[in-house]
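lol ok so funny story. i was supposed to be doing the assay writeup but got distracted and ended up predicting the structure for this chain instead. priorities right. anyway since i did it might as well share w the group, maybe its usefull for someone
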Amino acid sequence: MSLAARISGRQPLVWAAVFAGGLALTAWLERSGRIGWPWNVALIALFALSLPLMRTASLNRASGCGTATLALRAYQNRSLVWALSYVALLGVALTARNTWHPAGPVLWLLALLPSLTIAYYVWALGRYLAEEDDEYQRMRQVNSALIATGLLLVVASTWGFLETFGVAPHVEGWWSVAVWAVGLGLGNLVQTLRERQDDAA
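and the output, tada:
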């Protein structure tokens, strides 16, 4: 086993929690005025180092369970490309905005830059579902995506009503990506726990 595989272990949710916690910490520090640019981008880049470890841990777990199909490996690689590209393009957009203060079409382009990676991830997920020959693994991913979508609908609509009634602050729409990603992780966790209960029964 390689050094990276040993460091990553078999608990991808640990590394997902490190990344999500890092983003939440960075957002809190920024909103409370404790940090600003470029420290916010630097912190996000630092916590993004957990993403390759999360991918390796996920593949370690799948290999240990005998479910590391070729389609899953390709999907994990594409997911890593998506996550790192999202962080990188967001950093580029924020840095360019705060350094050069562009306006007009350039500002529009910078604002749209990170969303290109979201379109790539939707394509990667669809391609995985088309390439995966293992029906159980395909169903598992679909269930996780449904749980993630359900969580996003509940959180977004609940927060929207709270905001409408003036009891909660405005939250930018791009946070939906983070909520959906958390839901995807929770979906995988729920199914893993259910499988363990079934095995124990």
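The first helix runs from residue 3 to 8. Residues 43 and 139 are 36 Å apart (CA to CA).
back to the writeup now i swear
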